[in-house]
Amino acid sequence: MNQTASTTMPRIVTAHAPEGGERIIEIEGLNKWFGKFHALKDISLSVNKGEVVVIIGPSGSGKSTLIRCINNLEQHQDGKIVVDGVELTNDVKNIDLVRRETGMVFQSFNLFPHLTVLENITLAPIRVRKWKKSKAIERAMFFLEKVKVPEQAAKYPGQLSGGQQQRVAIARALTMGPKVMLFDEPTSALDPEVIGEVLEVMVGLAKDGMTMIVVTHEMGFAREVGDRVVFMDSGQIVEVGSPDHFFQNPHEERTRSFLSKIL
Amino acid sequence: MGMIPAREPPAGTTGFTAWARHNLFGSVSSGIISVLLGAFMLWAVFSILNWTLFSASWEPLWNNMRLLFVYRYPPELLWRPLGVVGLVLFLLGLSAATSRRETGSIIRGVYWSMAGVSWIPTVIALFAWPSVRWLWLGASLAGLLGLLLGRALPRFGRSLPWLWGASIPATVLLLYGVWNSGPLQMVGTRLWGGFMLTLVLATVGIVASFPIGVALALGRRSTLPAIKYFCIAFIEIVRGAPLITWLFIASLMVPLIFNVGPEAIDPLVRGLVAITFFSAAYMAENVRGGLQAVPRGQSEAARALGLSGWQTMSVIVLPQALKAVLPAIVGQAIGLFKDTSLVFIVGLFDFFEIGRRVIPNQTASLQIPGGVYMEMSVFMTLIYFFFAYRMSIASRQLEKQLGVGER
């Protein structure tokens, strides 16, 4: 590649899903500013049903902002985001529809400390999905089994370890029956010895066919279940490829220098 | 490798003597201070006892008990305020017996102290106040009845919110009355006074200022500028002047501004409005502090789950915010309870006003040296202290209980 061209000519890298799959997320020409700061620049990214997309990049590169735009926790000023056929506009009805179909897992868990684990999980199904309490509890217990903490159902989040809290948070998102799961650095706030138990749950979820967008630095996870890896820097997509591509021979100098620091 | 077994601490390092040696007589100077302070405390206790038992004149207080507690409320209608006492004790007993939540022990504590204390006037009445003898006994027994009923039929617990809600109109009905004559004849607020009035002012002020304060706090964070700036202006203006000023404005300025006679608005209403809004402004700032203490991630997680803005506020953010500032809210309730003593400004005769002016003036002609100010002050202090301290205890217990599940 011509060195001068790649550094002087702005180049928009798109991260579209392979043809033939069923598109569930479609982002086109997304731009986002915080005040005057240009946080996301011309992002185009699409995701097929069942795909696992891993987003990596240095802090401040806009990866969290990007996935927070997908469920409208951040509002974009320019471009188009379509989730499961619903476009995110200022229409509150659409925003609610999208949020119902996307589960989110946060870096800091964000369990509700004044509610028990079971109440944390059944709150939204009862109030948003209007399920009967018995059905909500039954589904909640199913997913608590799945993340291997059913015995903690009656406890408060503060009585659980970080790894257990994050697994409960995953169960909370799953119980709503989302079509897409968004993970915002789910293991970054965890002690090293419990990261494994959370990743194990996420790997299981990916193998079950859940559509996932995961912001993480866990390259082992990316390699095991990631379909595509997206590298972002200063608000834009720099490089896209399979995990193997990233591990064996990334093109961009910026990608190489980042990977050499985290691997 | 074997573990080291736990051993007893060295002799003389535990128990009271060790504590006293370490804390009271740790050095020469602290020993001297301990002895001096001890001597002073003995002298103070002795002086107080001496004054209480031999110098003080308790007769005017004893003779004016009715004035102090219900002012000019018609004596033949005293069954009505005492009926309210009985009603509250009954509901407290019912709540204490049926509450199964973590807060149950706190309610039981409040019940036992209130029901226990009610037996003091009951016993006195049985021997010395024949006109209200059976009324006090009835009120105290109603408290016991509530407790026993709650134990026998726990399903009453479910209707308690309704019963407490119904007790508000029932109280108004009993205290104010309905008709021009008969047992439920109207008793104008001009005849209200004493500790009864203090309790009415404090209860209404606390209960009414809470929702207004929460609404103001939420309004202050509103994205609609009209609501936001109205709330900010209200809070800042009300907090900018002392309560006594607002009471003054309520009693003098409002009739002037609205060009009505000084009698047009009931002084009790004036006092209540001033106290409620004043308290609501402070409540709003307390609640705002709590709202700020709830991390952003909480509402984000709730919104991400699909909860509406209103659900997020009422189920996730507000409960945590109120919990965080509960001690401040109770502190404010205690302050409000004591601040009701300023309502003499609007021409009301509350507990403090009667003890401070009415009774001393009446007894001035008896030529008691020093009047009865001291005796009245001591008695009023004890009463204020009992209620304020009980609230403080409940708040501390509540804090501890609600700490369960805290992150």
Question: Your description of this structure?
Answer:
The complex is a heterodimer of chains A (263) and B (407). Chain A has 263 residues and is of the alpha/beta class. Chain A is 39% helix and 24% strand. Chain A is built from ten helices and ten strands. In chain A, the strands form two sheets. Chain A has a six-stranded mixed beta sheet with strand order 6-7-8-3-9-10, sandwiched between helices. A four-stranded antiparallel beta sheet of chain A has the order 2-1-4-5, with helices on one face. In chain A, a hairpin with a 2-residue loop joins strand 4 and strand 5. The longest helix of chain A has 16 residues. The N terminus of chain A is likely disordered. By secondary structure, chain B is mainly alpha-helical. In chain B, helix 6 runs antiparallel to helix 17 and helix 11 packs across helix 12. The longest helix of chain B has 30 residues. Chain B starts with 14 loop residues before the first helix and ends in a 5-residue tail after the last helix. Chains A and B meet through helix 3, strand 6, helix 4 and helix 6 of A and helix 13 and helix 14 of B.
List the helices and strands and how they pair.
The complex is a heterodimer of chains A (263) and B (407).
Chain A: H1 3-8, E1 23-34, E2 37-48, E3 52-56, H2 63-70, E4 78-83, E5 86-87, H3 92-101, E6 102-105, H4 117-127, H5 133-146, H6 162-175, E7 180-184, H7 192-207, E8 211-215, H8 219-225, E9 228-233, E10 236-241, H9 243-248, H10 253-262
Parallel strand pairs in A: 3-8, 3-9, 6-7, 7-8
Antiparallel strand pairs in A: 1-2, 1-4, 4-5, 9-10
Chain B: H1 15-23, H2 28-55, H3 59-63, H4 65-70, H5 79-98, H6 104-128, H7 133-152, H8 160-176, H9 194-220, H10 225-239, H11 243-257, H12 267-293, H13 296-304, H14 309-324, H15 326-339, H16 351-363, H17 373-402
Helix pairs in contact in B: 5-6, 5-7, 5-8, 6-7, 6-17, 9-10, 9-12, 9-15, 9-16, 10-12, 11-12, 12-14, 12-15, 13-14, 15-17, 16-17
